[in-house]
Amino acid sequence: MQGFNKKHRVTWWAWLLVLFIGGLLVWGTAHDARLYQDPILQVTAVQKQQTTKETDDFQNVDHQTKQKLTGHLLNTKRRGQRVTLTNTYSTSGAMDQRYHVGSQLFVVVHRSGQQLHAMVKDKKRDTPLVFMLWLVVGLLLLMMQTSGLMAFLSVAANGVLFFLAILLNGSTQGAQVLWIFGSLAVAFAAVTLWLVLGWTRQMVITLMTTLGGTLCSILVALVVFHLTHEKGMYYESMQYVTQLPRPLFIAETLLGSLGAVMDESTDIISSLYALKRERPQLTPRQIFLSGRQIGSTIMGPLINVLFFIFVADTFPMALLYLKNGNSWGYTFSMNMSMGVVQSLISGIGIVLAVPLASYLASRWLPQEEVHA
Amino acid sequence: MSTITVLGLLLLLLMILVGGKAGAQAFFALILNFGLLFLAIVLVAFHFSPLIVTLVVGVLVLALTIFMSSGDDLSSTVAFLASVGVLVVLVLLIVPVEHWALVQGFGPEDSEDLEGLSVLVGISFVQVTMATAILSTLGAIAEAAMAISAGLSEILEQHPQVTMKALFGDGITVGKQIIGTTFNTLFFGFFGGFLALFIWFTGVNYSFGEILNDKIFVAEVLMVLFAMFSVLLTVPITTWVMTRAIALRRKRPQDSTES
């Protein structure tokens, strides 16, 4: 009971410490204007001006409102000076924002006569970003302690690798995108599984399944692309593309499905390890069948996870297409087809990993480690 | 035949080969989910409130995903109730954060794609962005809730008399096992899709500060964080619903002698 109380108190302190440090960080980003080179304005007064009704060619009705913002600059050598500016926002707000008292904005300042004039460039968004990061990391550490820390570390390590690979890709002008992100996928999988499972035989089997499943799905996709001449795939509909779209698309798909395939392989193989530990007399065939049984229950939900990640993202653009008088079919083709192709390829990888994991586990599960 | 048709048929074939009837069912659920997602977009285009449409579609998607996968009655029901609970909490978090961050709609990076499109369509994109974030998380919520309730129901099968307090601890333990790999699924799933955007940032030489405040970047990272938040939340909520369900079942007289 003593031990329980003590542990309880330590957790309580951990709560407070994480809350405090996070709060400090969030507060810090709300007051970090001086770290930025661009002038930042804090809005102190807002005056609503006239509203105009707008109708476009497709009978969409919207209202645009002008607002006069007064505020003071938080950084640069004009710090503390009062500035007024106007901003226009619409009801839909797809490309504009309505600002409120307290909003911090990046502005471009210019002087005309005695008065300072400014134009809004964008909103300062680092505070909500850091707040959410704090919320997730705090919750993770408090709920999961060491496991949470490991999960955080593996995501952070992958983030760093990802960033380095993007820099490398930039320095080669994107010519090697598939090689870079292909090797990155191997590194990602190895680092993550090493952090989760340590350097064990289980980790090697899981790693081989992950890479095998992902590689097979990409090969299958390439064969299908070749046979169907990529009919119905619109590379021009991919967003933010600055280099050759086809290898980029494959690299995106490869990375996107990697995590899910890894998730699934880890699940199947660790369950099979546990099963073998409980019932050492299981034959390889029985292990294979159990693996297939476990895999077939988790593959559906996992494909679903990726499907929603890949396709839900296209919501705003698809909506805009529909509101601009496009047909359902055209809207689908130009916005969602690539996401659907990505989900299907990942799905194939996820399904293929099931027999692969079961087979490898049935062959290589250690006999000597079992002490029943 | 188009590439999508061939890939789709191939996936269906593989799912049947590997999973049999359950595989076919899971494929069918996927198709229905796509239908629901498309329906949500069409309904919003007809000026239904994006948030309400998302909530209704979200509950339908969760029900479909959870009840169409194989699992016993207890764990499916618990997973469904818990995931709806997570959905509600997620909405309560997303609404203020999206209003705060103002990451709705499109950024300067989208201007090429927006050429020739009218953006003044009279639908609140703040709400559309919330809908997008919620929808993209649905699959992950369903998956996590199912994994935890299945794990707990297995423990209950082996130790039917486990105390409520121990069961809660077990839930967190099951959560610990899945959280590392689930976070990686989310990380890769989202960041794979953002690859082009991140290449854009380095190619156009954005400064660190510019990226950190960029509308599209913040919108995307917030989506990942919302997803991770909801998966984390799934652990205690599912465990709690399971303990309530078991407590209710034990309180009842012995009319259900099976299970």
UniProtKB/TrEMBL annotation, chain A:
Name the UniProt key words of this record, in alphabetical order: Membrane, Transmembrane, Transmembrane helix
Instruction: List membrane-spanning regions.
Output: 12-30, 127-144, 150-170, 177-197, 203-228, 302-321, 341-361
Residue spans making up a coiled coil are none
InterPro entries xrefs = YibE_F
Pfam families cross-referenced by the UniProt entry: YibE_F
Q: Which domain of life is it from?
A: Bacteria
Entry protein name: YibE/F family protein
UniProtKB/TrEMBL annotation, chain B:
| Classification via InterPro entries | UCP031503_TM, YibE_F
Q: Give the matching Pfam families.
A: YibE_F
**Name the UniProt record assigns to this protein:** YibE/F family protein
Q: Which organism is it from?
A: Levilactobacillus suantsaii
